[in-house]
Amino acid sequence: LLLDTGATLILIKVGNLKAETLIREKPMALTGMTDQVKTIGKIRARTGRLGDKEIRHTMYIVKDDFPVDYKGILGIDFLQKQN
């Protein structure tokens, strides 16, 4: 994943999800620096553990043809939540 401190959200390409992953919500358009990004939906996924507590985070799902050479983008919201 690309770490992008200028991005505010986590974007993940759909091909990186397990087949049984349930994508929630409706598609939406996000505004990027150069163009709109259309999502397929979003998921709430475990991103780590802190002691016995699970850390979960919302991830927005995009098509596999999203124009980055990575599986997705980690935005500043992820870093802030991980502290």
UniProtKB/TrEMBL annotation:
One of its GO terms (biological process) is proteolysis. One of its GO terms (molecular function) is aspartic-type endopeptidase activity. Residues 2-81 form the Retropepsins domain. Keywords: Hydrolase. This is Retropepsins domain-containing protein. The lineage of its organism: Eukaryota, Metazoa, Ecdysozoa, Arthropoda, Hexapoda.
